[in-house]
Amino acid sequence: MRMATVLIVEDEIFIRQNAEWIMEDLGHRSLVAGSLVEAIVHLSAEAAVDALFVDMRLGEFAHGGYDVANQAIVLKPGLRVLCTSGTWLTTEMIARFVPGGRFLQKPYSPAELGSSLEQLLA
User: Fold this and answer.
1) What is the number of other CB atoms lying within 10 angstroms of the CB of residue 117?
2) Contact 83, 102 (CB under 8 A)
3) N- or C-end of the chain: fewer Cβ atoms within 10 A?
């Protein structure tokens, strides 16, 4: 697997930290954000972000992760997007994915996250 810079956008700090540790254990560079604003700051400041790992439900916003993903691909065309959620995947959710976006169900294991990221970056 090639090493990548991954922006993790998750509003729950413990889940965000866990994802960051998993990414680092896999040899990836992690950037972390707890909100849309923080994510945009990272995307604007970083020259190379290979993938976005985003919770589809951020805070009180049912579709906050979609907003992050849509704005991210405007700033970084070609950015790969891996969405996650604790709710079951529905056709409505799939319809809102950015082109090429993938989904990983919470809770996920380190192996599942690693495999999903590898498939995303392939």
Assistant:
1) 24
2) yes
3) C
Cis peptide before 107 (omega within 30 of 0): yes
45-74 pLDDT, tens digit each: 977 899 999 998 876 655 678 888 988 999
DSSP state of 77: T
Please give the model's pTM, rounded to 2 decimal places. 0.92
Q: What domains sit in the chain, N to C, each tagged with a CATH number?
A: 5-121 (3.40.50.2300)
Distance in angstroms (rounded) separating the CA atoms of residues 99 and 23: 23
Measure the CA dihedral 71/3/93/63, to 10°: -40
